[in-house]
Amino acid sequence: MTDNPIKPLTLGSLTIENNLFQAPLAGYSSAPFRLLSWKLGRPGLLATEMISSKALVNQAPRQERYLAREDGEGPVAYQLWGADPESVGEATKIVADRGADVVDINCGCPVRKVRAAGAGSKLMEDPLLIGRIVKAMRAATEKPVTVKIRVGTSASNYNGAEVAKIVESEGADLLTVHGRHAKESYSTPCRYERIREVVEAVKTIPVIGNGDVRDGETARKMFDLTGCAGLMVGRACMGAPWVFLKIKAELVGEEMRLPGRFEIGDILLEHYDRLAVLLGEELAVRQCRKLGSFYSKTMRGAKEFRNSLNYMHTRDDLLALIEKYFKSESGGVISDTDME
Ligand SMILES: Cc1cc2nc3c(=O)[nH]c(=O)nc-3n(C[C@H](O)[C@H](O)[C@H](O)COP(=O)(O)O)c2cc1C
């Protein structure tokens, strides 16, 4: 029998039922998506989109959408971004009081606006500052505090291991490493050997491997090549909140029945309906144009559906498109499952 690397994991005071993590995804991993992931894929830990510490502390408008949770979600890591230990500490308290199960600090985001504020992947250039931020978070809550980093700042500075030791000594409970340095895009394959260096640098906290995991084979590769304690999945769960279940099944050689186009149509509609409650119809419609593309990404014949999404303005428009492309007898789109 194949050994099963999926097992419960303890981070600080919290034990989660398995070591598969849903990645924080800006513009995507709001409460509706997390609930669907939990219901359909059951990862051990869900994650919010990154949330600005300063905006939270200054009570800027429109933060509620990032803090909101759906009834029935599993444990959620609230991810903060920021570069000032004091405001990240204060923001930690705010999200912990609002029910975060875990508080995470983003040290990997390459977006210009975030780096210009000295935050995200820019922090990797100052490991001691990361240490001070973790210390402030640690002082602000007894809930698990986690850190998400990249393997380095550039090709000439793979300092992930150095950062890992610092955050471990400042009291972080878990570290996630994305296997690319701060200047690399997704076209560069994940650097498993650099993740391994980080795994080997710490002694007391679990390290989660992140990068290019999308199925049983790539999950096995991440475990085997890095020795990590768990996996985080990002892009592969967009439009496929069930992917965690697929990964779990494939790791032990089991077959899993993937949702067919009828069910995917229902999942898309549920995602939209929950977004409309959270964001209002106008914003939900805008997000749904992207969502629809993700949900049909592996389907043949979906191009016309994706084009039609640009002309969708209301829930009724969406419903009509779902009826036409996902639910009609002939079906405008074909998922792999429908072919079997
Ligand atoms: C649309 C999108 C949004 C993302 N937003 C965040 C974010 O808010 N915080 C973060 O730490 N990483 C963010 N990431 C990076 C992912 O969490 C993850 O590290 C990266 O996609 C690599 O994992 P993957 O190969 O499984 O996709 C984002 C990635 C994508 C594609």
Write the layout of secondary structure elements.
Elements: E1 9-11, E2 14-16, E3 20-22, H1 31-40, E4 46-52, H2 53-57, H3 64-67, E5 76-81, H4 85-97, E6 102-107, H5 112-116, H6 127-140, E7 145-152, H7 160-169, E8 174-181, H8 192-201, E9 207-210, H9 216-226, E10 230-233, H10 243-251, H11 261-279, H12 281-295, H13 303-309, H14 315-327, H15 336-339
Parallel strand pairs: 3-10, 4-5, 5-6, 6-7, 7-8, 8-9, 9-10
Antiparallel strand pairs: 1-2
Helix pairs in contact: 1-11, 4-6, 6-7, 7-8, 9-10, 11-12, 11-14
The chain binds flavin mononucleotide.
Characterize the structure shown:
This protein has 340 residues and is α/β, with parallel strands linked by helices. An eight-stranded parallel beta sheet has the order 3-10-9-8-7-6-5-4. The chain has a two-stranded antiparallel sheet with strand order 1-2. A hairpin with a 2-residue loop joins strand 1 (9-11) and strand 2 (14-16). The chain folds into two domains: 9-251, TIM Barrel (Alpha-Beta Barrel), CATH 3.20.20; 261-339, Non-ribosomal Peptide Synthetase Peptidyl Carrier Protein, Chain A (Orthogonal Bundle). 44% of the residues lie in helices and 15% in strands. Bound molecules: flavin mononucleotide. Flavin mononucleotide binds at residues 23-28, 49-50, 79, 106, 108-109, 148, 178, 210-213, 233-236.
Q: What is the general shape?
A: globular
What is the radius of gyration computed over CA atoms, rounded to a whole number of angstroms?
A: 20 Å
The CATH class of the largest domain is identified as Alpha Beta
Structural class: alpha/beta
SSE ordering: EEEHEHHEHEHHEHEHEHEHHHHHH
Mean pLDDT: 95
Count every beta strand, where a strand is a DSSP E run of 2 or more residues: 10
Largest sheet: 8 strands, parallel
How much of the residues is beta strand, in percent?
15-25%
Named once each, the bound ligands are: flavin mononucleotide
- CATH-defined fold name of the largest domain: TIM Barrel
Number of helices: 15
Q: Which residues sit in consecutive blocks of at least 5 with pLDDT less than 50?
A: none
Strand order, main sheet: write it out.
3-10-9-8-7-6-5-4
For the record, the count of structural domains works out to 2
